[in-house]
């Protein structure tokens, strides 16, 4: 574990670069504020990758991974407040297992893929469903709906590859204000971690520090009746077995109202 927390939230201090090797100094330090465990080179996301999630949305299983990206400006840390965008009323949570690439790779097979993994962290692929589902807003793609500031919180730590024997058997959960909303396992993935890495590496380099979000399971607000959209004051926590708990509070957007505004069609 890179910066493994004990019960008193103290950490072992390490020296070096996680991509080249770390050395435990033997010193313990307390945590003032969490930072993202890695500043991503790229944030690459896989959509519709859990069978039960596709079922709840009444969508067919994809034949190949559904790929989209988030800008690195979306990155947020454990404990960071995240603003609900003024232009959205349908903000949703998505717990995800995130894979951190440790070595540059290109054109690797699924059998080779795990050799290039540094480790894993928790992610919340925050989304605005109005911007995702309405063509006049989305442009018929998902990127904008998932690219608002703070919409890619990751953390609190990276569990190194040697600590996660099998990323395909991990429990993943979401809690909103203490109420469990998602509870599944990466056993339900349509495309597993090696398959995802291999697919993304075809003709494209994956650089050290690239973060890959592997999809979200059943239980998102969009699939529920009524739909419990996130709102200011909500505390959202996502957990991945063997890694930890990533928690953020949703706050009101206090940015200037003088920005360009798109009238939202009625759904």
TrEMBL record:
Molecular-function GO terms, alphabetical: metal ion binding; oxaloacetate tautomerase activity
Sequence ranges assigned to domain Fumarylacetoacetase-like C-terminal in this UniProt record: 43-251
Alphabetical UniProt keywords: Metal-binding
Keyword match Metal-binding: yes
Single GO BP term: oxaloacetate metabolic process
Family: Belongs to the FAH family.
Protein name: Fumarylacetoacetase-like C-terminal domain-containing protein
């Amino acid at each position: 574990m890179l910066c493994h927390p004990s019960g008193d939230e103290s950490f072992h201090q390490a020296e070096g670069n996680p991509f080249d090797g770390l050395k435990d100094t033997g010193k313990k330090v307390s945590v003032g504020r969490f930072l993202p465990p890695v500043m991503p080179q790229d944030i690459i996301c896989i959509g519709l990758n859990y069978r039960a999630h596709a079922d709840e949305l009444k969508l067919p299983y994809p034949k190949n991974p559904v790929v989209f990206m988030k800008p690195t400006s979306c990155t947020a840390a454990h404990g960071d407040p995240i603003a609900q965008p003024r232009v959205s009323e349908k903000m949703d949570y998505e717990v995800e297992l995130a894979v951190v690439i440790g070595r540059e790779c290109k054109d690797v097979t699924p059998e080779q893929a795990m050799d290039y993994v540094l480790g894993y962290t928790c992610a919340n692929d925050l989304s605005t469903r109005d911007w995702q589902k309405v063509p006049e807003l989305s442009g018929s793609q998902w990127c904008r709906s998932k690219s608002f500031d703070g919409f890619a919180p990751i953390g609190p730590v990276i569990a190194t590859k040697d600590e996660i024997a099998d990323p395909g058997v991990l429990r993943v959960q979401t809690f909103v204000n203490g109420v469990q909303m998602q509870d599944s396992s990466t056993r339900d993935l349509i495309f597993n971690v090696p398959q995802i890495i291999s697919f993304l590496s075809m003709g494209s380099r994956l650089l050290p520090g690239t973060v890959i979000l592997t999809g979200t399971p059943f239980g998102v607000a969009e699939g529920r009746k009524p739909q419990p959209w996130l709102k200011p004051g909500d505390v959202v926590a996502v957990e991945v077995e063997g890694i930890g708990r990533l928690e953020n509070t949703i706050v009101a957007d206090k940015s200037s109202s003088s920005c360009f505004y798109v009238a939202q069609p009625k759904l």
